[in-house]
Amino acid sequence: MSSGRNAPGRITHWIGGKPWNGDSARSGDVYDPATGQVASRVDFADVSTVDEAVAGARAAFTSWRNASLAQRSTVMFAFRELLNARKGELTAIVTAEHGKVLSDAAGEVQRALEAVEFACGIPHLLKGGFSENASTRVDVYSMLQPLGVVGVISPFNFPAMVPLWFVPNAIACGNAVVLKPSEKDPSAANFIAELFAEAGLPDGVLNVVHGDKVAVDRILEHPDVKAVSFVGSTPIARYVYETGTRHGKRVQALGGAKNHMVVLPDADLDLAADAAVSAGFGSAGERCMAISVVVAVDPVGDELVSKIVDRIQKLHVGDGRRPGCEMGPLVTGAHRDRVLSYVDNGQSEGASLIVDGRSHTIDGNLEGFWLGPTLFDHVGADMSIYRDEIFGPVLSVLRVATYDDALDVVNANQYGNGTAIFTNDGGAARRFQNEVEVGMVGVNVPIPVPVAYYSFGGWKDSLFGDSHAYGTEGVHFFTRTKVVTSRWLDPSHGGVNLGFPQNT
Ligand code: NAD
Q1: Is 99 in the pocket of ligand 1 (CB under 6 A)?
Q2: What is its EC class (predicted)?
Q3: What is the average per-residue pLDDT within 195-218?
Q4: Ligand 1 lined by 440 (C-beta under 6 Å)
């Protein structure tokens, strides 16, 4: 398998069931973040390339929408088997381009598999309702039909899982897909497309176009794209939602986050410190469900911070392919520099820099895009390190006096993706889950990413649109309902009647 590279060092689009064979006017660098070297270049689609993918998808849709549910499930089961057999290859691709350590990439692929397994059972969720004799000898029934061509636009931080949150459900519901993955780590999407082809998916049902704003804008404006699923940062999510809906599309746009972990005085502080470090620095903090703020309720602050510091100092940071590494580099040099600028900001804004990640020992090539785990204490809600999504290994500790103060902090934040409470008090946890204005809540669980048969989505500026991702909300997003009212001809019903139909 070529992993989409039809020439050494070049990653191109996947259109109509094969690598694109055109010449691209524009392209971008893809790095190995652990060495800082350019590993390959990825083609950037222009408008005509996106149009080619959409036209192919539209043609494929006309027969795929009528493929039997059994045929679609057969493809999905075959894809699941292939992905499971070859998950090691996909894991390696993710680590090579994203930088997250192999064990973390393997976790991403495993969660992606869960989403595929959910899609294998979608026929059960595509059943409509049936009411016999809604009126005398009149039956009413509903059916769920696919939308047509749908666009999926994904971020860099989960190059395998996020595309697979959407693509299997969209396809299993009978749609054709144009996927535009992140240009920073594009190869996982091609690998997925090739596996789908091997699983028997007809050509054109899944296409991958690589690129930047040009490709995204064309997907948002193209009249034959009926819906768009987007995941990325909040400013772009808002833009995608507004632009896509203005062009008449159904849009779900998942945005950024600032996830708080509230630690109450009765919590087990060892468990809380383990969780804060795992969820704060796993994947170098480049997770939309990463914990970026610990809200320590008096009097736990000093003891909790000291336990977090002990754990940070033992973290093994380095090339994710090396044994034992727990945290890898940031995805690009530009992103690393942006995260570094927040370390400067935090100091100048008056927060206490307790652990400076710039001096952490690195097990790898020093040209990589490194920043070690960094901890600020006594952070204020007015500081930029608190307000902004940093998306790196920078953890802030805010200290508050009471549970109510902690709740106020979380609810005043513009984001509402994930949150967690650490406590041994069931009543406090129940109160929190009821009162907190956040879409996904963990009780002594720091990264509460819902399983595939629930749905994933934040509140407030973490999601634009009505539908959360995957699960039953995903099926709802990728289908539309038709209701049929049916009567088989009977002479007793003859005669003209201009009155509004009544049920008798
Ligand atoms: P990003 O917003 O920069 O990019 C996301 C996608 O949008 C990419 O495919 C990119 O090519 C495209 N894009 C970028 N700039 C654009 C522009 N100006 N116009 C049109 N398209 C554009 O996000 P990222 O840096 O790749 O990913 C990290 C962000 O994603 C973080 O904010 C993170 O919180 C968020 N995220 C959210 C979730 C969630 O479920 N809510 C999940 C993962 C990541």
Answers
A1: no
A2: oxidoreductase
A3: 98
A4: no
Cβ–ligand 1 contact at 257 (below 6 Å): yes
Q: Quick one: which of 233, 259, 257, 255 has its CA closest to 398?
A: 259
User: What percentage of the chain has pLDDT greater than the value 90?
Assistant: 96
Catalytic, out of 120, 173, 288, 325: 288
| pLDDT over 50 at 6, yes or no | no
- pLDDT above 80 for 192: yes
SS3 at position 249: coil
pLDDT digits (tens, 9 = 90+) for 99-152: 999 999 999 999 999 999 999 999 999 999 999 999 999 999 999 999 999 999
Ligand 1, atom 26, lies closest to the CA of 155
- What is the amino acid identity at position 448? P
- Ligand 1 site, residue 156, Cβ cutoff 6 A: yes
Is the CB–ligand 1 distance for residue 391 below 6 Å? yes
Q: What is the pLDDT of residue 503?
A: 87
The beta strand positions in 181-290, using DSSP E, are: 206-208, 225-231, 250-254, 259-263
Q: Whose CA is nearest to atom 19 of ligand 1?
A: 213
d(CA 144, CA 160) in angstroms, rounded, equals 28
**Residue among 194, 195, 184 nearest 158 (CA):** 184
Place of tokens 């939309």: 288
- Stated as kind and residue range, the H or E segment containing 420 is strand 418-422
Residue 348 above 60 pLDDT?
Answer: yes
| Per-residue pLDDT at 5 | 42
Q: Which amino acid residue places its CA nearest to atom 38 of ligand 1?
A: 288
Measured CA to CA in angstroms, residue 393 lies from 295, 317, 409 at distances of: 17, 11, 21
163 lines ligand 1 (CB under 6 A): no
pLDDT tens digits, residue range 363-420? 999 999 999 999 999 999 999 999 999 999 999 999 999 999 999 999 999 999 999 9
Give Dmax over CA atoms of the chain in angstroms: 88
**83: Cβ below 6 Å to ligand 1?**
no
pLDDT at 4: 44
Ligand 1 pocket mutation, candidates 236, 394, 438, criterion most atoms within 8 A of CB: 236
pLDDT band at 329 (very low <50, low <70, confident <90, very high): very high
Mutate to test the pocket of ligand 1, among 156, 369, 388, 454 (most ligand atoms within 8 A of CB): 156
Q: State the distance from the centre of ligand 1 to the C-alpha of 232, rounded, in angstroms.
A: 3
Q: Which domains, and CATH codes, for the chain?
A: 9-256+457-483 (3.40.605.10), 259-414+418-443 (3.40.309.10)
Pocket test for ligand 1, best of 157, 283, 332, 455 (most atoms within 8 A of CB): 157
Mean model confidence pLDDT for the chain: 97
> Which of 121, 137, 15 minimizes the C-alpha distance to 474?
121
Q: Does the pLDDT at position 491 exceed 60?
A: yes
